[in-house]
Amino acid sequence: MGPLLGASSASVAGAPGSGVTNGSTPPQHTQGATNGCPPPAAMSNPRRPGSQPSRGGRTPWSPHGERGRLPPINRCVGMMMWGQQPSAAPGLEDSLCSIVIVGHSCALYPRLPGRDGGTTLPSHDAAQTSAPCGRDAEGRAPGSFQFGHQDNVPSCTPVQRALLSLTLSLEKLQAVKCRMLEAMEKGLSQEAHAQSTVHMLPTFICSTPDGTEKGDLMVVELCQSHVRTLFVTLLGDGNQSPQLMYKTFELPADKLQGTGEVLFDFVAQCVQKFLEEIGNPQHRLPVGFVFPFSCRQTGLGKAELISWSKGFQCSDVEGKDVVQLLQAAINKLELYHVEVIALLNDTVGTMMASSWGGKPCEIALVMGTGTNSCFMAEAQLVEVVEENNGRMCVNSEWGCFGDDGALNDVLTPYDHRVDQESSNPGERRFEKMVGGLYLGEIVRHAMLMLAAEQALFIGASTSTLGSKDAFKTQQVLEIMDNETGMAKARSALEALGLQPSERDCCRVQQICRAVVSRAAALSAMGLAAILSLMCRSRELERLVVNVGVDGELYRAHARFGEILQSVTGLLAPECAATLVPAADTNGLGVAMVTAVAQRMLTQRHEVEQLLAPLRLSRADLERVQGLMRQEMERGLGRDSNADASVRMLPTYVCNTPDGTERGDFLALDLGGTNFRVLVVRVMEEGIHMASEIYVI
């Protein structure tokens, strides 16, 4: 991110395009257009942005440039986000503006022409008149005018209000982070686990590969649109040269909504076809199953599905062991040498894959169709399992965060509409704000509502936009591109039968950037919560850690990673997190975990063989019981007592105390090395005893 001025008191926003770079040149104007808008009435300034000569088209988002500084009165308390300079479009000046974050509040300033075609902020005096430090233009106290849901700002156009509703202040993100942290702690608690929206599920993965793993193994990964199979050969050479073969099978859409048996039969058939293509190996093949859904694990190879997501809704699976379901489907095909020994979430595989090459990762994020995270937690924190030593990987399953209302103050009308049209209304609210499956839908609903307000596609029919999934997340990511984004926007809109103006395309681009930037900021919020939890539980002043990251959003849009890194630093300043892209997306990380599981199973088998002679079956115990009873009976017999191995000697003690005993008694106790003398007085009030021990 760009230079921060007073990060400790600054605010940050997932503002449109807030993935700032390390450049220092302010954006340039394109001929005939401005990137400013009239400020709110109380912030008006006579100097309006003028048109500037073309400087080679649009420029990337970048932090404030040489002249784009905060007013002196506000330095060290805020931060400036420059917006993408749109291409020429008459009337655009009423839709976009610079967003300045100052202390606890924000201001909308007009763009002013700077030297070399750049822009700068208003002068110190103008800014001081518009919005005094710590207060907004209406003189409201800090925190009273924050990003998001600015319906009471009459001078903002519908597009401005839409962009602001999709923008989050640092204070708001900090508040949501605290709620996330609270939900995580509840998820780890034995008592409160059932009430938490962040499940914090144990994975039973307590170690990482040590390089000694050898042999062949398979990985089967179930994704939204395909099934991936992977065959890995490990040579035990430190895992420096694994041999890989893989194949991807398209997953028909009808399999997502049918019965669970049909789905797992299809996965098993993919395994069979893959093995046929690589020569039908007949030796035992341990399998790691990547199942990217919320599961309650009771062991590395035992996991019950809690709930479906990502468009899956197969019957007769929730509440059942998905490892057994897949193994049963494989056994139907008589592939008895193929054994599913480990179930992993794709996030765990990302953590392992990101550790490849000498950068151990203790946290992983996946930001693709859905969203999830995992991290190595102190085992004593995971109260739902009995393990207290070392660490255990915890699968956060944070997609359901907000289902209890924790996100209500940051949800927009667009989010509500996406939720209402989904297959699981009211569920997985956080994932529906962050996951790639939903970002296109958020943009679609934003366009529909702006069109209804005559702010987009004026005079045109938007009936084609009314169809669910008419606007894809892939299109959103393409439209965000600096070089080709405007052309992609026009192409996507024309494919829907619209005739967009240049201004329409630019506004759609800004909406796309706002939606994706908000997703990045919320992802950073979740990561910051994990970092703070780890730092506190390990009692560290500063946590230094690598974070493995994967997913279409992260890979396809560089700004996403920049926002993720920067906002995380602001929300968890006590931690230094380095984002490490996943080194492999074909399941190598999962293969490593499967190899570790196989190594642990082999070691357990060796231990069991060693202990086998010492173990007694129920039949053995019953036989010993019979022999003991026989000897006890012989010991009680007059004629057989002398020969019994259990002598059963009489003590001539015929009664037990009944509580009426009274008096003083002397007891002598001769032990192996000590002689003990006890004086005991038994009274109605109780028993008093004095003793002395003599060493022999």
UniProtKB/TrEMBL annotation:
EC numbers, comma separated: 2.7.1.1
Organism this protein belongs to: Anas platyrhynchos platyrhynchos
Catalytic activity as recorded in UniProt: D-glucose + ATP = D-glucose 6-phosphate + ADP + H(+); a D-hexose + ATP = a D-hexose 6-phosphate + ADP + H(+); D-fructose + ATP = D-fructose 6-phosphate + ADP + H(+)
Alphabetized PROSITE patterns for the sequence: HEXOKINASE_2 (PS51748)
Enzyme superclass (EC): transferase
Compositional bias per record (Polar residues), positions renumbered to this chain: 21-34
Pfam families: Hexokinase_1, Hexokinase_2
GO biological process, one term: glycolytic process
Domain Hexokinase N-terminal: from-to ranges: 160-355, 607-694
Top-level taxonomy: Eukaryota, Metazoa, Chordata, Craniata, Vertebrata
Gene3D superfamilies reported for this sequence: 3.30.420.40, 3.40.367.20
Assigned GO CC terms: cytosol; mitochondrion
Protein name according to UniProt: hexokinase
UniProt keywords, alphabetically: ATP-binding, Glycolysis, Kinase, Nucleotide-binding, Transferase
Region feature (Disordered): 1-72
Molecular function in Gene Ontology: ATP binding; D-glucose binding; fructokinase activity; glucokinase activity
Pathway: Carbohydrate degradation; glycolysis; D-glyceraldehyde 3-phosphate and glycerone phosphate from D-glucose: step 1/4; Carbohydrate metabolism; hexose metabolism
